[in-house]
Write a structure and sequence with these properties.
single chain; alpha/beta; Cobalt-precorrin-4 Transmethylase, domain 1; Methyltransferase, Cobalt-precorrin-4 Transmethylase, Domain 2; 3 domains; 5-stranded mixed beta sheet; 11 helices; binds S-adenosylmethionine
Length: 281
């Protein structure tokens, strides 16, 4: 793909496992780049080899100093500087934030070749609500800090997305089940786009039990569904109103499923109620 690229800083997303996911535009920007700023040159060298490119690489991390940023931005004022991370979209739990801010401050063009990100892929295949979500990155490792962050997020009406490691997964799920509710829905998305890709869904208690023994291998995204509106908190009128509203948009079984999930109710009972409400209207 032959393209002309004006001078600037290009944030280039790269695959999260399967090299086939590099976009044609990302490849064209990398081909045109005067400098490729990287997290780990060994990782990016593999991708460049796959694309048949030989490029000047330069290490960049958020703890790189003002001088490194200054040099990269001076180069981006004259030519194409591409920033990549080891996998996925740079800046998403990866370096680049300070560089992008500095580029704006210096009046340097900032643009992107968008592409894979494990958080978004996991959300899209988790079966959890996607209308509102919060990406929270990696949880703190210390128990107290982890509990504090979960307490801060617990009532948010949104799907929560975390990056987590295999060895910590079981313990984190146990803490989540305790603090966010055993019946709350969750999903564990592992090794996305790779040979052993897997998505496990269920309640937080069920997932905690599943991963209690033995750390799963590979890279992991952990998702938590929005809080259940419990039977105690919601009156029958509220449930009926939600069901009527859902019936306006959805077929009976889907409406019953949606409201059952939202209020933590039995799906079959809500299906029967939905059929009755439809017959009455
Ligand atoms: N910038 C990346 C992105 O856009 O997804 C994330 C970088 S962060 C340092 C790395 C974490 O992302 C991993 O520890 C894991 O939690 C998640 N991750 C990356 N690739 C993944 C994959 N193929 N499957 C599941 N999770 C993945």
């Amino acid at each position: 793909m032959q393209m002309d690229f004006p001078p600037g800083l290009y944030i280039v997303a790269t695959p999260i496992g399967n090299l086939g996911d590099v976009s044609a535009r990302a490849a064209a920007i990398l081909a045109a780049a005067d400098i490729v700023a990287v997290e780990d040159s060994r990782v990016t060298a593999k991708l460049l080899r796959h694309l048949g490119l030989h490029k000047k690489m330069r290490a960049y991390h958020d703890h790189s100093g003002e001088r490194d940023r200054g040099e990269l931005l001076a180069a981006a004022g004259q030519g194409v500087v591409a920033l990549v991370s080891d996998a996925g979209t740079p800046l998403i739990s990866d370096p680049g934030y300070k560089l992008v801010r500095a580029a704006h401050a210096a009046g340097v063009l900032v643009t992107s070749a968008p592409g894979p990100s494990a958080a978004i892929m996991a959300l899209s295949i988790s079966g959890l609500p996607t209308d509102r979500f919060l990406f929270a990155g990696f949880l703190p490792t210390k128990d107290k800090a982890k509990a504090d962050m979960l307490a801060e997020l617990s009532d948010l009406r949104a799907t929560l997305i975390f990056y987590e490691s295999g060895p910590r997964l079981g313990r984190t799920l146990g803490v989540m089940a305790k603090l966010l509710g055993e019946a709350r829905e969750g999903a564990v998305a592992r090794e996305l786009t790779k040979r052993h890709e897997e998505v496990a869904t269920g309640t937080l208690a069920g997932l905690a039990e599943r991963y209690a023994e033995g750390a799963p291998k590979g890279e992991i995204v952990l998702l938590v569904g929005p809080p259940l509106e419990t039977a105690d908190a919601a009156s029958e009128e509220q449930v009926e109103a939600a069901l009527l509203e859902a019936l306006d948009r959805l077929p009976t079984s889907k409406a019953a499923g949606e409201v059952a999930r939202r209020f933590g109710r039995d799906r079959k009972a809500l299906y029967a109620l939905a059929t009755e409400l439809k017959a009455r209207s």
